Sequence to fold (89 residues):
Amino acid sequence: MYWDVVEVNRSVATRSLSGSKDGLEGRARLRREELTGALAPLLDVRFFEQVFIDCGAVAWPGKIDLAPDAMYEQVESQRDESTRVARRR
Fold:
């Protein structure tokens, strides 16, 4: 799919990830309050740094992964908002 992640750049400070198959670049941020339940291990910096790409999804050991389509939508909406702000100037 066009939203498959092809590159992941991790930033532990902001828990952010980026890259997509169609060339859209940006950051999908993981807020601390979202890291509960199955995602709770991502609060551990050493665990977070074990990130890898599995079949187009950002993943970690233990079958933890993020939906690439949701990440894509978040990045795309941030880009669209930046464009709207720039046009107002």
